Amino acid sequence: MSFQRRSEVQYLKSLLQTLFPVIVAAAVFVLITVTIFLIRSEDPGSFSLQDYRGQYYINVHNDLHRRRLRVEIEKRNFPDRPEGIILDQSISPGTIVEPRQSLRLVVNQHQPLLTVPDLVGTGQAGISAALERIVIGDQVYSLARGSTSYVFDDGVPDGTILAQSPLPGQKVDPDFPVDFLVATSNAYRGKQITPSELKELPVDLAYEFLLRTGASFTIKEILSPTRPAEQGRVADARLTGKDQYELDVFFQKPSAAFASGYEQETVEIPAEYRGEKMCSLYHYPESDPQSRKAIFRQKLSSEKATVVFFRRNTEVLELRCENKVVSRKVLSPDFSG
């Protein structure tokens, strides 16, 4: 082998020895990068949901994101609890969940709560002015105007507000919607209810609407809300006979009962009162029985009746048939705030 040839071979060997560590390092880097990409691009499998209650949301945000959960935040205001702490979760700890499953967290948020004004008995012309300017300190807040439903009532001036939801005095977040039931002298418009008029109404307003027209109803199905704003609202309504309706209602029972919130209850109708006897179901604050409000007043042929209603602090749920108290249950919050 010539001297020149040997020099070329020696040069190539030297170059290969120099570049070999670099090539190996580059290959390892590419392999690691591809592995990380594949891991991150794959959804984690099903897993047991942990208990996030009592933890700060900021501390669990990354874990929730890593598990690909679709998180919705519902804000509550409890001044005696730390801001940002998770108060409740829509899925119970230990439940097996899948990636991209929806999870609603109730997070304590120290923001001003607005008191819903009392507009019952006033004219609907003043709704906007009452909701659009609510002053707290040097800040101006507002509530949203929700739906307006009309029912026949010739005993009050046209346009008089007969009922509202949320109830007067209730504490809500800024921009929370307020729905109204308003009197009309137009018998054609206000004496008959179409199912579409009941859809998306808060159930307490839907009950008032049905009571005032003499209609009866049954809750056919309870559906899980897909967002917090649906809780306690009518998901769908169907006319099943003359002045008889079936309602589907959005409701999900929280793991803890707050100072106020929607409740689902089933009441039993004694056999002797089924069919032709008039039964009425009321709820009222335990401290004020005179303020009782009817959920329904109708003849029931079934053994049980399911209702969803808004409870304010400690309330009594009372069933009366033929003006006799048939059952009475006290419902209390787990903690106030």
CATH class of one domain: Alpha Beta
Q: What's the helix-strand series?
A: HEHEEEEEHEEEEEEHHHEEEEEEEEE
Order of strands in the sheet with most strands: 18-17-20-21
What name does CATH use for the topology of one domain? Trypsin Inhibitor V, Chain A
Spans where pLDDT lies below 50 across 5 or more residues: 39-43
Query: Roughly what percent helix?
Result: 10-25%
Structural class: alpha+beta
Q: What is the rounded distance between the termini?
A: 95 Å
How many strands, what sense, and barrel or not for the largest sheet? 4 strands, antiparallel
Number of DSSP helical runs? 6
Give me the count of strands: 21
How large a portion of the residues is in β-strands, by DSSP E?
35-45%
Rg: 30 Å
- The CATH architecture of one domain comes to 2-Layer Sandwich
Mean pLDDT: 85
Shape, per Cα inertia axes? elongated
Q: What is the multimeric organization of the chains shown?
A: single chain
Describe the structure concisely for a colleague.
The chain is an alpha+beta fold and 337 residues long. It has helices at 3-41, 57-66, 127-132, 187-190, 195-198, 203-213; strands at residues 47-48, 70-76, 86-89, 96-97, 102-108, 114-115, 134-136, 139-141, 144-152, 161-165, 171-172, 177-184, 216-223, 234-241, 244-250, 260-268, 278-285, 293-299, 304-312, 315-321, 324-331. It starts with a helix and ends in a 6-residue tail after the last strand.
